[in-house]
Amino acid sequence: MPKLEVLFEDNHLLVVNKPAGLATMGAESGDTVHSLAARYIKHKYNKPGKVFIGIVSRLDAMTSGTLVLARTSKAASRLTAQFASKSSNENGQQKSKNKKAAALAPRKFYLTVVEGKLDAEADQWTDQIRKDESAHRMRLSPTLRDDSKTAELRYQSLATTPTQTIVSVELLTGRKHQIRTQFADRGHPVLGDRKYGSQINFKNGIALHSWMLQIEHPTKRVPMWFEAPVPSSWEKFQHDLPDQTHLRQQIKLFFPPPAAETQ
Fold first, then answer.
1. What is the pLDDT of residues 232-260, one digit of tens each?
2. Could you report how far apart the first and last alpha carbons of the chain are, in Å?
3. pTM of the model
4. Total tally of structural domains belonging to the chain
5. Quick one: which of 249, 178, 160 has its CA closest to 212?
């Protein structure tokens, strides 16, 4: 049985480091993050009956890293609204009829290793992304379509080799398979991602890790940062990555917060 590494928990939140290869929820068979989290809470606190675990965002099964779960329905409702604002608002602040209830949109930072050398050391990409139902994958569209949505990210290269690039990415919108699709469409699939054209094996899952996440606590209404160390499958890239302290500093330098957060 896979184990969940717990990064943080309180009465409203459970934040875990999801291993690659484990679905967030909804798998036809076997464990999921949802089932393991419910089992963990039930056992630790000796809770009778069914345990509530709210899924407020997801990671692809083959992606590892930071994932926040809700332990109460109030937290689930407020966190779901926060993550929804990630896709609908550009200034980093969730719109609300009640101004006092406004919440900062989550900030999501990933580490990934992609094939090839990127054209620019740093860039921001805005594309139209749509679901290809027949191929069970996402695709970029050269023009706006009725079934497409805006996908936006910014990235910074951390290290390069003749054949690969280690990249830090901030998602500015939260679309399905967004990082995988936007890099693969430009000829730089994530290592191990066969669905999007990678020809290179990766030890476990794909080389995409949800490294750092900021949310606003659903009841305390204060910003909180969570960070998940890269898994052992990244061992061959460890010497190319800055240490955690320098990586945090670089992330803040590369990706300054939206104007709304600095006021």
1. 999 999 888 888 888 888 888 899 886 65
2. 46
3. 0.90
4. 1
5. 249
